[in-house]
Amino acid sequence: MDTGIDAGIDARIDRRDVLRFSAVAGAATALTLPAMSFAHAEEGPGPEGSSRTVRGHLPTGAPDFVYLPVEVPSGIREIAVSYRYDKPQVPSGTPGNALDIGVFDERGTGLGGRGFRGWSGGFRDSFAISAEKATPGYLAGPVRAGTWHVVLGPYTVAPQGMDYEVTVTLREGDSGETPRPVYPPERAKGRGRAWYRGDCHLHTVHSDGARTPGEVAAAARKAGLDFVTTTEHNTTSGHAAWEGLWGDDLLILCGEEITTRNGHWLALGTDPGTFLDWRYRARDDAYPRFARAVHRAGGLVVPAHPNCPFVGCQWKFGYEHADAVEVWNGPWTADDELALAAWDNLLVAQDDWLPAMGNSDAHREPQVVGLPQTVVHADGLNRRDLLRGIRAGRSYLAESSALSLGLTATGPRGAHATIGGTLRTDDEAEVTVTLTVKGAPEGATLHLVTDEGTMRTAPAASGPLAWKTTASLATYVRAEVRRPAKEGSGLPGAMAAMSNPVWLESR
Predict the structure, then answer these.
(1) CATH architecture, range 403-507
(2) What 3-state class would DSSP assign to 347?
(3) Which end of the chain is less enclosed by CB atoms within 10 A, N or C?
(4) Rounded CA gap, 270 and 247, in Å?
(5) Strand 50-58 vs strand 9-10: parallel, antiparallel, or unpaired?
(6) What global pTM score does this model have?
(7) Domain 180-401: assigned CATH number
(8) Cβ distance 188 to 249 under 8 Å?
(9) Is the peptide bond between 179 and the residue preceding it cis, with omega within 30 degrees of 0?
(10) pLDDT value, residue 488
(11) In this structure, are residues 256 and 276 in contact, taking their beta carbons and an 8 Å threshold?
(12) How far from 448 is each of 228, 260, 458, 465, CA to CA, in Å?
């Protein structure tokens, strides 16, 4: 039995190799390394395992993905993978080395995801898969004979390049039984037609979060939420991780955060287990395909933190296939201010406007689940009605469940519309827009914003804010509740709540 490390496999590449990178199924650039074989061990892999190691070097300009084929013989109970890479010092302002990892089984690595078995990005340095269990981020199932592929994703490469090492261990034995996944129900008791509070961007130990699903569920209840969506990076392993955590008071929706090199997007409320690939850039013709896959799976497409300044996070795909956009991500920052301005500019396209969402993107303490939250008016606390409400823009965003907001436009003879709705009236007929807020923070101000800009402001403490206009003067009206501005910051006060628009349309 070979229990040592094979140091003879060298997968170094240089800059000339970059010119020879092939594309995988039309996706981002990729390189396939020589296969790792276990066929020459003196004996087959035993209970303690047989290991092989690949060492290599990636230069700057390396492909987006590097595939390491692993020839898995029959009779294997578990495959375990560990890896490491160097992190040399780099000049200030220069990205250093960051290497992601995942795996596909013998069924293949195509964009259809048939062979997908897990992804942990750069959060873990090892994982294991067997029929009976798998490391969070990975999917349990039999380790069948054939060519598996460990996938490396050099997210950023330092000017010196990246030295890496991957060790694969195979352990022999009976495969055992794979537990049947238990997915959350699609509905909870709820309160009938009402406003429901949710956080649709959350991470647990199934990707790069530090909380367990149980800890997130407890935090959601503490925050007064009615629903949450599980959105792990590039994996569906979290979909079956919430058994026993839902209830009449908390609905759990399935989803994913698709983390590409040109931006992140959320798939919200998809069928459990729906695979969505991330191995493409905006220059490829893949994103529309997976946006359509989300819609076929009953979900929504939502670009996440579109103005985040980090590498790979800024949204480059356009908004043609989106259903909403995450304008507010976590505690309010200058990034959100930019996202708000960009979203507001999109509202002039009334026929195909995108509602705003707010989510916490919480990963660990002290990040607050439900800061912010999207408050949706829906016919019931169930997947279909909530997604309909989000897509229609019947929602507002708030920093906590202590704050609630109402916005109504009223025309002649009692005609009226609320958030996400349209008031149709004569061009010059007087329309009264009223903003009511409960639980506003001390010193907050209320703002009414139209396609011309901010038209009215008042202290929240003075009570409801009313403003008279006409459909000829305002295409839409939306509301903001702002905290006091920080002296010397040069920025408006942080958002405490904001609404999607009420539309005014001339008859």
Answers:
(1) Sandwich (2.60)
(2) coil
(3) C
(4) 19
(5) parallel
(6) 0.93
(7) 3.20.20.140
(8) yes
(9) no
(10) 83
(11) yes
(12) 29, 36, 9, 8
**pLDDT at residue 20, rounded to an integer:** 39
The proportion of the chain whose per-residue pLDDT surpasses 70, expressed as a percent, equals: 93
Predicted local confidence at residue 459, as pLDDT: 98
Q: Which fold has domain 9-172?
A: Jelly Rolls (2.60.120)
Strand segments, DSSP code E, in 113-226 are 116-121, 126-130, 146-156, 162-172, 194-202
- Is the pLDDT higher at 245 or at 25? 245
Rg (CA), the chain: 25
pLDDT on residue 496: 98
Mean pLDDT of 303-323: 96
Hey, is 419 helix, strand or coil? Answer: coil
CB 228 within 8 A of CB 220: yes
HEC string of 495-506 equals EEEEECCEEEEE
pLDDT at 25: 37
Domain ranges of the chain: 9-172, 180-401, 403-507
Encode pLDDT of 186-196 as tens digits.
Answer: 999 999 999 99
